[in-house]
Structure formats: structure tokens, C-alpha cells
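Recap from last week: sequence in, structure out.
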Amino acid sequence: MIGYVIGDADMLTGFRLVGVEGTEANTVNEAKQALNQILSRSDIAIIIISEDFTTESSIRAQIDKIRQERLTPIIVELPGSKSPANGIKLSDTISKILGTKM
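Predicted C-alpha cells:
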């Protein structure tokens, strides 16, 4: 089981440096398409998605439905490079999630 990231280029770079694959998305529609495609993979245990996309109602409804109906994948929302992170650096969050120092 592996993780997968859906986010902007900056977010993807951090995760790719530690071996996590992903899809770059610049719009909510691109994020939704990536989410739909990745849900068909049985080897994905966790999907990390940028909060830049998850505030839009249609993708929010889709994520909520997935969380209610499926045990896996777990969907984690992280602040994107354009989102306020309440003073927490994205690299620190990634390191904490993956258990590795970036």
C-alpha cells in the first residue's frame, strides 16, 4: 500500500523527494479528475490532497462520500503552497506524516 498526492507543483515536489508519487492539479476540475482516476487503484492506502481544492463544494461532497463509504484510501487534506498553514511549514507537515526528515 502506498500514498498518492494531488496538489500544485510545489506540494508535489516535496512528496516526490521522499518517493511519493502524485498528480499536479492547478484547478478543482483537475483535482477531481485525479481523485477519480486514483480511486480505481487498489494499491493506494492514503491520498493527500491540497486544501486549495477541498473547499469547493463538489469535491468536498465527493471526499465526504468516500470517507463514509470506504475504509481505504484514507484522504488527508493538507494546506497547499497557496493556503495559510497556521504558521506550520508544509515541509514539517510532510516530514511528520511520512516519518522522515526532509
